Amino acid sequence: MKKKVAIIQSNYIPWKGYFDIINFVDEFILYDDCQYTKRDWRNRNKIKTQSGVKWLTIPVKTKGSYFQKVKDVEVSDHSWVNQHLSSFRHFYSKAAYFNDYFEIIHNGYKNVADEVLLSNINYNLLLLICNILNINTKISFSMDYGVTENNATAKIVELCRKAEAQIYVSGPAASCYLDEKKFKTIGCSVHWFEYDHYPIYNQLSKPFDHHVSILDLIFNKGPQLFKYMKTFSFNRNLNF
């Protein structure tokens, strides 16, 4: 079997496609030694409410730190944990499987309540959800590989080389700028992971939105959630 590797920045409670790509690869590298981007998925995500989507945001320190890396971003107000848990209770308490999973989510959030670094919060919540989904993929950090390349593509290629990747798995958005020839020089091919054609499921409100946190799918579908993802067998069991 050829080793598949994906390299993506950490996101806050990501959507289902993020976890499909984690489950698809053998190693998932969090690309957190790149520049932090404001108003992006690093510190926020969406949930469904009766009046549409709502952004949940982790407040971070950015003033005077325009060029800071994701791994260095610090939380500016720790009250976000209780605020986000309150939002889950308010908007998902009527979901079919809310009571089955909320305590697990609650405990995971409390465990990161005092965490200062955004990257560590994202990592720990990512592990929490991977445990629920019974995903056993190795998750590592790009900074652990000691790559010194500055060019983005060259850095990803070097990460793949050091991780001994034979297949680099990327979302389709990168196809407009990623040079596949550079991967061939290290004996690695590129696989484009498609995010389209996900089946819809019953959300608590309309219109349906695929691009919300996976917690929406967990709370609404519980053990049946794998029918609405791409890389899981239908008879897979959730943990807890």
Which helices and strands occur, and which strands form pairs?
Elements: E1 4-8, H1 16-24, E2 27-30, E3 44-49, E4 52-57, H2 80-92, H3 98-111, H4 118-133, E5 138-141, H5 152-162, E6 167-170, H6 180-184, E7 189-192, H7 214-221
Question: What percent strand?
Answer: 5-15%
Q: Cα distance, first to last residue?
A: 30 Å
The portion of residues assigned to helices is: 25-40%
Rounded to the nearest angstrom, the radius of gyration is: 18 Å
The biggest beta sheet reads:
5 strands, parallel
Strand order of the largest sheet: 5-2-1-6-7
In terms of per-residue confidence, which ranges show pLDDT below 50 for 5 or more consecutive residues?
none
Taken from the alpha-carbon principal axes, the silhouette is: globular
Q: What do these coordinates show?
A:
With 240 residues, the chain is α/β, with parallel strands linked by helices. It has seven helices and seven strands. The longest helix is centred in the middle third of the chain and has 16 residues, at 118-133.
Characteristics:
single chain; 240 residues; alpha/beta; five-stranded parallel sheet; two-stranded antiparallel sheet; 7 strands; 14% strand
Short description:
The protein is an alpha/beta fold.
